[in-house]
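Exam review. A common question shows you a sequence with its structure tokens and asks you to describe the fold in words. Practice with the pair below. Do the first one on your own.
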Amino acid sequence: MARILVVDDDERIRTTFRMLLEGAGYEVEEAHDGNAAMKCFAQCRVDLAITDILMPEKDGIEVMLAIRRMVPRVKVLAISGGGRIEPSFYLTMAKHLGADAVLVKPVDKETLLKTVASLLEGTGVQQDRPPVVPQNSSS
């Protein structure tokens, strides 16, 4: 089963992502900032890190670069809602520095689950069951 580390200083986002990802069959670890993420990353095997870019202490770019140095095989999904400037600036920078994928907040559940499944497909991670992607019933 794939293990995902969700790093975001917003508890509501961490909780929402945890519920969606666990509902899709993934194991989820949470970290409230980059320093907590590094402690968690050092203590457990992680297949994918989802990290916000703008956080206090250690930001998502620093987290991503540290993960790349420690275990290059781990996939990284960078997310941002922006700050003083548009989120696209931060996400473009994250992509150039090694993020495997980027998403703008707010992230809808279907996009999140599809992106996570796509990133984990090429890693050889065995899952107990394939992720369930909810179908949009308003078709």
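Now try the second one, then compare your answer with the model answer below.
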Amino acid sequence: MAEKMLQPDARQHETNRDTQQEPKTAPRMGWKELYLKEDWWAIYLGLGIVLVAYLFFANGSTIKWIAVTPGKWSSLDQMWAEFTAHLPQYCVQFAMWLAIFSISLKALGFKLKEFIPSFTFIYLCSVAIIIIGAWEKAHHYNLEPPLVALALGMLISNTTGLPRWMDTGFRVEYYVKTGIVLLGATLPFTLVIWAGPVAILQASIVSITTFMVIFLVGRRLGLDRKLCAVLGAGGSVCGVSGSIAIAGAVGAKKEHAPIAITMVILWAIAMIFFLPLVSRALHLSTGVAGAWIGTSEFADAAGFAAAQAYGNMAGTVPGIPGSPESAVWGFTLMKVVGRDIWVGIWAFVLAIIATTRWEVKDGKKPEIAEIWWRFPKFVIGFALASILVTIISSNYDFAEFNKVVKPLLIAPIKNLRTWSFIFCFFCIGLTTRFRELASTGSKPFWAFTAGVAVNVTIGFILSVVVFANYWTNLIR
């Protein structure tokens, strides 16, 4: 009987992949929400990982063993040796993910006999995807794991397809929400302080301006306000994560998040080539170029690849001053620290706007409580994880943080965050149909592209002109 009568949250996700329906107002479950909503389970899972990691760290150990990821390889023999050497770790990690997700999805009303084989398929493909990304020439051929995951998923979805029952394992939102909570743990507020007012100011200017341009141009083109908000978030903060978070906050239609994600990926790929090429032509210092890339890129993985590629030119290409570390650190401050942290701010603000202004009909007064029901709760987990790691790292200076806290505590959490995001990207591809995206026309593309033009221009002015001295001397 329990498997036949799906819980409310499970029913929301049992929508046919080929239908396009606008989600209803978030159901009010009272205290049952604490175990019947993916948001809360993402918080429990993410914070649980952080707490376990801290317990190991406090006792002089680390969770690196279970947070395994493939090492760099240059030949098939080396790749196979690396994989087989860590096979027991992959098996234990798979068992960990499977157990945690199974417990939560059982509580949400999903069928484990469908989820277990589906997730097994997802995990095995994710291992292969991350191994491809560990190839030493992966950056050269633009084979970043998130992009490979998305492309492979779309290829499968739009060609052979998979059985419908496997949809149970394609929990896009659950995986990304878990990843965002873990993202909070890798962004302690001490990093914001160390970043300084210049980095935060520049990131804030870019985030606000880009969002407003995309939203206003989209509205001028006649797009739905909620789609404009999702597109704006995808362009102004952390791409895929921002799109999904804001889609939930404003009650967007089913197809809105995939549309925004597609725009993010298209322009992220373009910027991998464009930004380093222009930076090289202008002989920008690595710190300045890293800041511009962090201001103008739309996906963390793509931006990191671009920053790393340009940073490696220092010392090898005549006329490019700086160090490789400056490019990566400049990008990190602008994108990973400065812009990504806006996901929680935009989610809160837009949940209020959507509830109190956009959805008021026939003179009916908005219910303030609806803001809470609509607000993406996993953002709370993001903040709590960040606060927890902030407290832990508060006794360390910057040098000690990089030497002790980052490799033993932050790095393993970041590895598990990578796995969660790869699950998400792969499932996005598996649930995306080109015919659904094509039905929206070209207007979302032009709205997003307007934001790209402004984003790149403002980012260049701030990085190369206004704050050039700061970024040039980022690492002395």
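Model answer, second protein: The chain has 22 helices and no strands. Residues 30-472 form one domain. Full marks require stating both points clearly.
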